[in-house]
User: Fold this.
Amino acid sequence: MSLEPFTLDLGGQTASGLRRTGEGTRVLALHGWLDNAASFVPLLDHLPGRDIALLDLPGHGHSSHLPRGASYTTPAAICHVLDVADALGWDTFTLLGHSMGAGVASLTAAVSERVERLIAIEALGGLRGPEEETAQRLRDHVQASRHGSGRPLRVFPTMAAPIRARMMANQLSEANARLLVERGVREVPGGYSWRSDQRLMLPTALRLTEGQIDNLLQAIACPVQVIYATPAQSYYPEPLRSERLKHLRQGQLALLPGTHHVHMERPADVAAIISAFLA
Assistant:
């Protein structure tokens, strides 16, 4: 089946994405921060027969931005994921997440028995925040939220500049950077600007401690396949990232040489791991 765009009305919020219907396992895919649904397109040719919905998370891609006064938080993202599943008519489903999306997916699995299986790429449980940084982090968030930069979005005269920026920032091939950029920009007078909500760049208000993340991982009852690229990212180092697996009831790990977007750069290898897990 071909990949088709979809739009869901969630009580005033629009959730958009890409869908390939099928008779196999129902998979809801959640992308990383400032990415979009196109993040998973390279995987699809290697995952035949699955009923897959690639979601643009709120403020990303073609999905609507949150209304004024609302904040992008993990609890809100979890509720949004379950609302999307409701709108799709899926009582149970598999969650596939990359980076931020893997953090949201793993915490959704911790609080909902509707998640049958979890595939987490390059994250598990989300980023931690040392307790001694709590006040300063919240202070920075409030200051930025109330006053912001007020700067207009940068306008690119052609697509070439944002594609080069994504290639450099994420070690992506030109083809994969183009996939993300084409879904991540909109036409404006004079060229193109990013679609993503500028509020996604605000400092995170609150982060979980490592102990809280451990407790949430221990609550995940479904089987979990974790996929990490090697070497580890500096913000998610070893042995921290591997030690988190010890808290899973049914967890397994696969390591692949590659970069943070390993699912885009090595889709056949990642899909083979996913297929074996889902089988």
About this structure: The chain has a mean pLDDT of 95.
